[in-house]
């Protein structure tokens, strides 16, 4: 008997800590199904900070400019909350290594390229780790090349990749698709091209959704739940 296939499009940004947490919770839920389903997982781009210059911006100044000076006194609490959530999912957040908020468009191009070579999940996870645990700049093309090669993209495919335009049009089109779909915050998980799970939901929520999208489930158009996420204004 063939397994039911569940397609999951993960709409996320490398700059989004809740995206990292949400993806780890999804992995936990998939492992808990013990092979009941066949999963087809794809990462789709979403830039929380598309207007950030190539050189990035100071992290504290970014928050001050976005939310006012009062936000500075809350940053430590925000970081601790995020760190605690990450620890529960096996993630080590090191926000002290992230003095700047960086442009992530080139990172999304790398994830797109990784999909062409069947290593998208490995590259996406490595980028999250490189950024949030190692504190690396996700707009540093040398770092991106290193991550890509280490996770299965042929080195010759990355020669001159970031200097050219390959993947640019495709990533822009995918970003427009997400916006046209009404997604304003990430992570967002689109299941079977029809159902939406918003935010970094617990693994149990994903398991419930998997059972609801089985063939005998009631016919409804959207499963929409609210969880922790990052908005298009960068607020996490």
TrEMBL record:
Gene3D superfamilies: Glutaredoxin. Transmembrane segments: none annotated. The keyword Ribonucleoprotein does not apply. Keywords: Isomerase. One of its GO terms (molecular function) is oxidoreductase activity. CDD domains: DsbA_FrnE. Residues 8-208 form the DSBA-like thioredoxin domain. Pfam families: DSBA. This is Predicted dithiol-disulfide isomerase, DsbA family.
């Amino acid at each position: 008997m063939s397994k039911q296939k569940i397609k999951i499009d993960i709409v996320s940004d490398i700059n989004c800590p809740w995206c990292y947490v949400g993806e780890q919770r999804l992995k936990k839920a998939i492992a808990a199904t013990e092979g009941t389903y066949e999963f087809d997982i794809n990462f789709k781009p979403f830039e929380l900070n598309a207007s950030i210059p190539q050189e990035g911006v100071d992290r504290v100044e970014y928050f001050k400019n976005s939310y006012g000076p009062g936000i500075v006194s809350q940053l430590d609490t925000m970081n601790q909350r995020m760190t605690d959530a990450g620890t529960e999912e096996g993630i080590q957040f090191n926000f002290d290594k992230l003095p700047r908020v960086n442009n992530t468009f080139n990172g999304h191009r790398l994830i797109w390229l990784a999909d062409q070579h069947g290593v998208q999940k490995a590259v996406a996870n490595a980028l999250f780790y490189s950024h949030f645990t190692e504190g690396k700049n996700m707009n540093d093309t040398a770092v991106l090349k290193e991550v890509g090669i280490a996770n299965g993209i042929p080195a010759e495919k990355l020669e001159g990749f970031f200097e050219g335009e390959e993947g640019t049009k495709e990533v822009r089109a995918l970003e427009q698709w997400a916006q046209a779909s009404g997604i304003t915050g990430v992570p967002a998980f689109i299941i079977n091209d029809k159902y939406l799970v918003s935010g970094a939901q617990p693994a149990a929520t994903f398991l419930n959704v998997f059972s609801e999208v089985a063939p005998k489930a009631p016919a409804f158009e959207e499963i929409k739940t609210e969880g922790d996420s990052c908005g298009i204004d960068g607020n996490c």
